[in-house]
Write a structure and sequence with these properties.
- This protein is an alpha/beta fold.
- It has one domain: Rossmann fold (3-Layer(aba) Sandwich).
- The chain has eight helices and six strands.
- The protein has a six-stranded parallel β-sheet, with helices on both faces.
- Helix 1 links the parallel strand 1 and strand 2.
- Helix 1 crosses helix 8.
- The radius of gyration is 17 Å and the shape is globular.
- The N and C termini lie far apart (about 35 Å).
Length: about 220
C-alpha cells in the first residue's frame, strides 16, 4: 500500500470525490480541503494544516460565465481568476519549499481542455484555464531537476457534478451535442481522471514533467 500523503483541494467539487476515493483505495492518506479557495491566507493555512505533503492535487473549478467578449463583466473575469488561477499559484508556492527540501514531490492540477481548442462565448473561462496550464508548464520545467514532477490533467466532457449535473446528462439536446463534437460519442467517467491522477502521482511517473494532458474523448484533436 502507498503510505504517502496527499492534499486534495475543494474535495467535494469537480474531480475531488473521484480522486479522493482512488487515492484512499491505494492507501494514500488524504487531507481533504473543503470549500472554495479565494485568498492567499486560505491556501497557505490549508497547506500548513496538512503538514508533510507528498502529493498536491490542485482541484479548482468555477462554472463559466458565457457570453460575447464585448459583454464580459469585470466582476466575472475577476471571479474566474480569483477562484482558479490565483489559488493555484498560492498553493504551489506554499507547498514547493517542503518538496524542494525533500527533493521529492508530485503536483497535479486538474484544469481544462477548453483553452487547447477554444470555445466561442467562453473567452474569460478559456483565459483563466489557459493561465493555469501555462503556469503548470513553467513550474514543471523549473522543478524537474529537483525531482518534483508537476503536470496538469486538461479535461473536458468528464462526468462531474460541477459541470455536468444529472439533468444536463439526460438532456437530449446536450447528448446530441456530445455525439456531434466528441469522437468517443460520450461523456467520460470520473474514474478516468482519477486513474490518470493516480498514475501522475505514482513512482512510475517520474519522467513526465510540465505536461498538459488532454482527457476529452478526442475533442481537442
Amino acid at each position: 500500500m502507498d503510505k504517502r500523503t496527499a492534499l486534495i483541494t475543494c474535495v467535494e467539487r469537480y474531480m475531488g470525490p473521484a480522486i479522493k476515493q482512488k487515492f484512499e483505495a491505494l492507501g494514500i492518506e488524504v487531507h481533504a480541503g473543503e470549500g472554495p479557495l479565494r485568498s492567499q491566507a486560505e491556501c497557505e493555512n490549508l497547506v500548513t494544516s496538512a503538514g508533510d505533503i507528498d502529493i498536491l492535487v490542485a482541484n479548482l473549478a468555477e462554472p463559466p460565465m458565457t457570453g460575447p467578449v464585448h459583454e464580459i463583466a469585470n466582476d466575472d473575469w475577476t471571479k474566474l481568476f480569483d477562484s482558479m488561477v490565483h489559488p493555484l499559484m498560492y498553493l504551489v508556492r506554499a507547498v514547493t519549499p517542503q518538496m524542494l527540501a525533500r527533493r521529492s514531490g508530485k503536483i497535479i492540477a486538474v484544469t481544462s481542455a477548453a483553452p487547447l481548442r477554444g470555445i466561442p462565448n467562453n473567452a474569460a473561462y478559456c483565459a483563466a484555464r489557459a493561465a493555469q496550464n501555462g503556469f503548470i508548464k513553467a513550474v514543471g520545467l523549473e522543478l524537474a531537476r529537483s525531482n518534483v514532477q508537476v503536470n496538469a490533467i486538461a479535461q473536458n466532457y468528464i462526468n462531474n457534478d460541477t459541470y455536468y449535473p444529472d439533468d444536463l446528462l439526460e438532456n437530449d439536446k446536450f447528448l446530441d451535442h456530445v455525439r456531434r463534437n466528441v469522437p468517443t460519442n460520450k461523456v467520460g467517467a470520473a474514474g478516468e481522471t482519477a486513474e490518470l491522477a493516480a498514475y501522475l502521482a505514482s513512482e512510475n511517473c517520474n519522467h513526465m514533467v510540465g505536461q498538459i494532458i488532454p482527457l476529452a474523448g478526442g475533442w481537442t484533436t
